[in-house]
Input
Amino acid sequence: MKKVKILSTGSYVPPKVLTNFDLEKMVDTSNEWIVTRTGIRERRIADENVATSDLAVEAAKKCLDKVGYKPEDIDTIIVATVTPDMFFPSTACVVHKKLGGKNEPTAFDISAACSGFIYGLTLADGLLKTGKSKNLLLIAADTLSKFTNWQDRNTCVLFGDGAGAMLLTVVDTEDDDDAIMSTYLGADGNYEDLLYIPAGGSKMPASKETVEKNLHTIFMSGREVFKVAVTKMVESVIKTCELAEIQPYQLDLIIPHQANLRIINAIAERLNVESTKIFVNVDKYGNMSASTVIVGLDEAISEGKVKKGSLVGLVAFGSGFTWGGAIIKL
Output
């Protein structure tokens, strides 16, 4: 029986730190206001000449180096992003080039906003178990700061940049446990105008007017997003646990999408899970889109919060709306 194994993880955030006190000098806000409403104290910002692929490559290198794999050992590269280097080619192809480009892997992007890593993990599970891939590199990377309106006090405080990577393989065995015990995905396009970037696509191509009106930046209806985010992430944890035939309390750690501390706390309360089992780093990084879950997992491993054999719940929610969860065994 084919079973998926997680070989390693890696993460990278830009060195530049933007604190709430920095934002006080840029927009009508305060550290107290931001912390009270979001739990965020600082975030990382990529330099102007740094692309999403650059963050992705740094995370990938850390991931591969941990287990001594070379880029040419990888036969599939998936990049989850909503801030690609360009419309085409895919950021995955750019990553392949920047890693050395010595082989000819399958390489493609997926766009599921903040749920992108969970969507990618589900695809990876299918590709590996059906024999379409042997060694798969799954990356989530975004530079949301480049699409943020820094005059909008309601959104500019929320987002940061970062990337995370996971290396997966498949083995044919009857003995070992499957690393990906369950996944669950969902979406509802009826909410598409509650969290989006209006311009830049075929519906509203770039023009002088769209630039002047800041239509290439993030628009969000916060209250509506909050309500659905909590409901769907709780639902995702419950459904993935049912599929894995376990209860939420049996999880050693839950790593939710790091969008807002109030959302995270509401999830923990509804699941009746003790706070020590909920991973939080939103205070350091803000919302890094799809990369929050994998960056969180990489940090949890490096900090010793989880270890080999730990059961970990991953859950995310994003624009679309999209949502999903996964239960993994390290």
